[in-house]
Amino acid sequence: MTRRLSVVFCLLTLFVQVLPVLAQPAQTQVVPAPPARDLKYWVLLTDRDRVSPAALSPTAIAQRRTQNLPLDDTDQPVSTAYLNRLKQAGVQPICQSRWLNAVSARLTPRQYAQVVKMPFVKGIQAIDPAIVITSIDLPANPQLAPVMSQIQAPDFVRAGLTGRFVNIGVIDAGFFGADSANALKHVFARGGVKRVRDYVNEKKTNNDLLRTLESSADFHGTEVLAAIAGSDPTENIQFGLATDATFYLARTDQGNREYRGEEDNWVAAMEWMDSLGVRLINTSLGYAKGMSNPKDNYEPGQMDGHTSLISKAAQIAADKKGILIIVSAGNEGEDRSWRIISTPADAQGVLAIGATNARLWNRIGYSSIGPENLAYLKPNVSCFSLYGTSLSAPVITGFAACIMQANPKLTNKEVMAIIEKSAHLYPYGNNYVGYGVPQASRALALLRNQELPAVPRVVQATGKTMTLPISTSEVAVSVFHKKDATHVLQQEAVKVSNGKLILRRASDEKQTTVDMKKEVIEVIWE
């Protein structure tokens, strides 16, 4: 599985020198036979202790009641008796998941053969240790301002929406220097980071995590946090929308060695944040391929929303815990052997975020596309990011925080629907950019129950070419050629000449989306 921590970009005033990384993720797979060496596994259990859940805070329980989400089996802890049986067999559990009713542990071949036969063990799935970190050079002057203009950030600012009173969880690879970064000083000065937890090295204190650099990947969470809430008044630059939100940070991914498997840390962090009542979580991590043994790699067809255990956990969070999870779609768009989104972005209940170009708002080359085997649209929406979907996802997390501040009673699925409906292509989404770029003005109108302007229109066409009159000041517009309502054959920039656009239909093209940003035309070929 390839780890897909997107490229770490340099915040303009963050650090004098930042080492960029593009990381590629890890994932789970069914292991049919004992391994030749010690590996980390999920041990899936048959049933649970029937006790009252003790791991949820009063805040979390109150929020569940507000959303009419009952406490159920997934809130009950793993069986103490089963844990003791495993320990008696010499197995030391690492993480426990009440959602999945499972524990993670390292097993020798002998322990594997012993544990798989235990009557309370439903199955075993490996957590692959191979995650390869790759690094590339970044431009000297990264540009962050375009995305704030693209999503209409000033509209939220004028409405007084800054994420205040919204709790945001960030699950990432590290938060080195976050408390001293210029773009985040305002967050720490007001005590906006409430709790920090390191699942990679639990012996570390909060200060150790923020001030100890193990690898360049430790900058990644800092960059993500700045893209959610960053603001530098000295330079008059706003990096993120949720400047007044409250944060809970979890490090689940280690960047100082090439091989590791840490999906269990991710699930543990999700459950920890749920227990504290956090309803909005950004996770700019993803898992796809890169196994030590290529025969054990996930196939692209398995990015289906229910094969991986972390997608199952993400769906539980969405359906049963009322959590809105915002996930980067992935950076494999130019990898011909993969191209599609990684998990948990494939889960139906999460908001998967792709990346667009700055000018045309179509898919930027690296951004992963949605698999054609899914019955739902992925990615859900997109926005500009020059350095990976890891940094487009936090922009939309800030967008979601503004919506949740405006109406705290909205459920996670209602917030998700508002974000999708606020996007500039809605309802003509596609598997390249989803419904397009969310617009603050449209989100505010939806929050006020106002009608949206009727920007999309449908045009019927016949034959192989069509001349389409359009009204735009753009020299060229983005065109998506599709084989059906959502699946793109190709995207292109088409030149506008004298107020007209000439469309040339491909042999298997059924629909075409003409994207002029402020207007959308859907061409139906007969």
TrEMBL record:
GO terms assigned for molecular function: serine-type endopeptidase activity
Residue numbers annotated as active site: D172 (charge relay system), H220 (charge relay system), S390 (charge relay system)
InterPro entries reported for this sequence: Peptidase_S8/S53_dom, Peptidase_S8/S53_dom_sf, Peptidase_S8_Ser-AS, Peptidase_S8_subtilisin-like, Peptidase_S8_subtilisin-rel
Key words of the record: Hydrolase, Protease, Serine protease, Signal
Segments forming domain Peptidase S8/S53: 166-436
Biological process terms in GO annotation: proteolysis
Signal peptide: 1-23
Key word Hydrolase present: yes
Cited PROSITE patterns: SUBTILASE, SUBTILASE_SER
Name of the protein this chain belongs to: Peptidase S8
